Amino acid sequence: MARRVLTLLMLSPGEVLSTPRLAKAVWGSCCPATASNQVRKAVAQLRHSIPGAGAHLLTDGPNYRLNVSAVESDLVEFNERRLRVRKLAESGVGEARRIEELQAALSLFRGQVAADIVDADDLESGPIRAAARVVEERRLAVQKELISLRLRSSPPALVIEDLRDLVAQHPLAEDLRAQLMLALSLSGRQADALAEYAEIRTLLRDELGLDPDHLLAQVHEAVLCGDAHTYLRAGASPRDYEQQSAITEFDAGRQHMTPRGHKVAVRATCTLPHGPADFVGRREEVDTLLRTARAGSRGPGPLLICVDGMGGVGKTALALHTAHRLAPDFPDGQFYVDLHAFSPCERPREPAEVLQVLLRSLGVEAQRIPADLDCQVAMWRARLADAKVLLLLDNAASEAQIVPLLPPGNGSLVLITSRRRLYGLDGTEPCPASRMSAGDSRQLLERLLGDGLETQAAEKLVDYCGGLPLALRLAAAKLRSRPTWTLSHLVDRLTHVRRRPAELQVGDRSVRSVLQLSFDALTEAQRQALCVLALVPDTSIGVYEAAALLDTGPAEAELLLEGLLDVNLLEQPRIGYYALHGLMAGVTAGTGEFDRLLCGSGRRSALRRLLAHYLAVTSRSCLLLGRPDDGAGTGSDAVSHLPEINSREEATEICERELPAMVETLCASRQDGFFVAAAQLARNLRFVLAPEDGRRDEESGGADDAGTAGAREIEAYRRALLGLAAVCRGAGLPERGARLTATAMSAAGALGVRSAERVP
Known about the structure:
Layout: H1 2-11, H2 19-27, H3 35-49, E1 57-60, E2 63-66, H4 74-90, H5 95-106, H6 115-118, H7 127-153, H8 157-169, H9 174-186, H10 190-207, H11 214-224, H12 228-234, H13 238-244, E3 248-251, E4 256-259, H14 283-295, E5 303-308, H15 315-326, E6 334-338, H16 351-361, H17 373-383, E7 390-394, H18 399-402, E8 413-418, E9 428-430, H19 438-449, H20 455-465, H21 469-481, H22 487-493, H23 500-503, E10 505-506, E11 509-510, H24 511-520, H25 524-533, E12 540-542, H26 543-550, H27 554-566, E13 571-574, E14 577-579, H28 582-589, H29 592-599, H30 602-624, H31 648-657, H32 659-672, H33 675-689, H34 691-700, H35 709-730, H36 734-748
Helix pairs in contact: 1-2, 1-3, 1-7, 2-3, 4-5, 5-7, 7-9, 8-9, 9-10, 9-11, 10-11, 14-15, 16-17, 19-20, 19-21, 20-22, 24-28, 25-27, 26-27, 26-30, 30-31, 30-32, 30-33, 32-33, 32-36, 33-34, 33-35, 35-36
């Protein structure tokens, strides 16, 4: 394992590699839950076992980077020599000096890159294989450039042997075959040169259903006319040379001087679905997409932009709206494919299946499309070699599904939408699709239902839909299908979180069915974590609180939360904090896993641990703010993991930040009868938020002594919640105050129930 981690780091010197990417190099897409921990252990093992490794194997936040120089890494030296050759060419330095540098660069190779791992690797699209392939491609480019220079500066016969070796390795590489034809022709072997052309023409037709490209055709014509020397000097066939006065540019991929303006004719095609007619808002995200797309790729390949977000957030609508605005910038074609990563009754589409569709859209007849994936990829890339196209890959499952579909040109754009964060593709520009703002949501609602909506009901509907355009559209569609319903009536039906997803359904479209697909795709541990987090919906909780809920350590909790964040089932309002969308919480609460959690002791145990954690946090905060320890609260020694709180400012800050989750915990405590602990938590919070008010509350005493012990505990709970509600209203938090007041009033009807269970 450590060897694979080191291999990927060595193949990417100076590059910051994320822990998930390193884990994927070890296990592929089936990483265990402990993958991040095991990667960290592997890095520690490398630092310990390799002398001096600590100075080069650096930690960069949660990621790692291998910092080595050309003295310590052949790959770094190779890259530096490549750059040096480019600068020498730009400076007009003679060919002999450049040949010397290129030969020195190639002498650093002693065989196939990472051969011991790649040859035995069953991870076909793993990061190690991909990184090794990149290095091999660069090596091949240097070999081509060296041969091109030697063809012009030394006897051509000297490069024939090297060219034959390369052609044997890459039989369909037309630029290599063109160089071999020139070398043979210039060596007086015209018949052999023409035989090479006949061989590759047959290969291309049989394997790909293609004719040789314009470059190979020009070389063929030059050989036939006996003008190979003129072509080599001018970089064009005699006819083109005379007409264009040798206006040329260097093509690093083919290593030939090719006429500027020559371009493979591509059938201009548009398969984009129509854009959403009622698209509103998203101005900042649309502007970001347009600006990024028009800035172009930073490297030699196409520009990749990944629009990711939770189901129903409007990724496809955003991407389509932007694609139609960008269509004029890509005159050679605009293509759309749904990859079915999350589609009901559909499996994710295989690249070979998608390439069939794309090639057919280019006009290739079905019988001419090869069955082999590699040949399909070669045909797709050959057809778009010099084209500038836009490709929208909707609903993608993984990086492996995307890589074979990428067009080759650096003028092309690939827009990807996915529920997962597919940032493992090198050079990907992320564009997360967040919830719609309240203003944009209201604008969409008015577009769907018209003006004159009930103001308060509209605001509540926008809040309940949580910025998901899908939810707003289904709510509007349901109202239109129920002429007797009012907006207020629909809002009343959406009040209960667990019932909300089922209400947002029209025909076979529903919020539940869309989000359930994401839930079903999770691992068992992730589903269990989501069920526990659904106990405190629409509030952000930190790693320590999550650890208390999940009954694990902070590191293990963070690993689970980060995994859910990567599939956009959690949001991250700030570093170290995570929030579960209310509608996703409602869908989770309707699953069998959640029901089993409720039926067993899982819910009570999770809430008991969270309540104990909050009691410890607030008790510590109260001590720092000047309240003597009366022993009523749970101390820090009663819980396993607590954040550091060392000052009055930190005490106030952590309680204010976690107030929403604490309020939800206080309200949830009523159902499970945790009255004593919840009352103490409410009093602690009241003291932190309003110390003077909290002191008066403590001096006034608790509940009356009359009644049973259970009744006294419920009354103390009710009073504590009402006191905290008053403080929340005074602090400008009316919603929290209303939530606490409603729970306190409902607790008044619970007098006489069983005595509360104390939190240990």
